[in-house]
Design a protein that fits this description.
The protein is an alpha/beta fold and about 250 residues long. It is built from 8 helices and 7 strands. The chain has a 7-stranded parallel beta sheet, with helices on both faces. The longest helix has 29 residues. The chain is globular and about 45 Å long.
Length: about 250
């Protein structure tokens, strides 16, 4: 991680769970971190609990990844105030009841698609433009899921979140497409998809899911994985990293 010292990492969805764990891990690795979130006040509250040397390198910026104007403004601020982004962790994501055959759930479906797909693409676009302008050896990490590779048929506790796997399959395709685009652009920027199994965060707040026997990872497991993929030698690119808790069956 030495080459990332004092360089800028952007983490979307940084106010809680996996995003906050990743932000802390990057801060402890001597990076400057910009946490993007709709609930930016939560980042500020948690910033107050950090040691002074960590808190001084954390910047909270209000950004709804459903809104292109917010995304463009955030990266413009990063370019202006911090010289630009070197690492992007596209972590923001939502999981909602989106049964495909249920009436009246259009807004929920749009929210999941806009957050998990469109927001991820636009953040990657703006981050890459920042990296390209400065010709840096950056890294874009897209937070995927095991359900972005295999739909968990028969897992009753996940049976109503039906648009979610589709959005994560999209992340699988987007990540590889982006990698090819950057190769064609002769870029030094790496791209990685990280696909965790179930992680114990507020996104999994379904009582039935919590009460089930499904094994869970913890946010720190994912944060450690982010450190692993961005700390590889310059000639090594991890395209996909899948992480499951021991005993997971899907």
């Amino acid at each position: 991680m030495d080459r990332w010292k004092n360089r800028v990492a952007v983490v979307t969805g940084a106010s809680a769970g996996i995003g906050w764990a990743i932000a802390q891990a990057l801060l402890k690795s001597d990076m400057i971190v910009v946490g993007l979130a709709r609930r930016v006040e939560k980042i500020e509250q948690q910033k107050a609990t950090l040691a002074a040397n960590l808190a001084s390198r954390l910047h909270a910026y209000k950004c709804d990844v459903n809104d292109e104007r917010d995304i463009v403004a955030a990266f413009k601020w990063i370019d202006s105030e911090l010289k630009g982004a070197d690492v992007l962790v596209n972590n923001a994501g939502v999981l909602k009841d989106t049964l495909l055959t249920a009436p009246g759930n259009t807004d929920k479906i749009k929210d999941v698609i806009n957050t998990n797909i469109t927001g991820l693409i636009l953040c990657a676009r703006e981050a890459y433009q920042s990296m390209k302008r400065r010709q840096v050896d950056g890294h874009i990490v897209n937070m995927n899921s095991v359900v972005g590779h295999s739909v968990p048929i028969g897992v009753d506790t996940l049976s109503t979140y039906n648009v979610y796997p589709a959005t994560k399959y999209a992340v699988t395709a987007i990540t590889e497409t982006l990698r090819i685009e950057l190769l064609n652009d002769n870029s030094k920027v790496k791209v990685t998809s990280i696909s965790p199994g179930a992680v114990r965060t507020e996104i999994f707040n379904d009582p039935d899911l919590i009460a089930s026997n499904i094994p869970f990872l913890v946010p720190e497991d994912i944060a450690n994985s982010v450190l692993h993929v961005i700390s590889t030698p310059k000639h090594v690119e991890i395209k996909e990293l899948t992480i499951k808790p021991l005993g997971e069956r899907f």
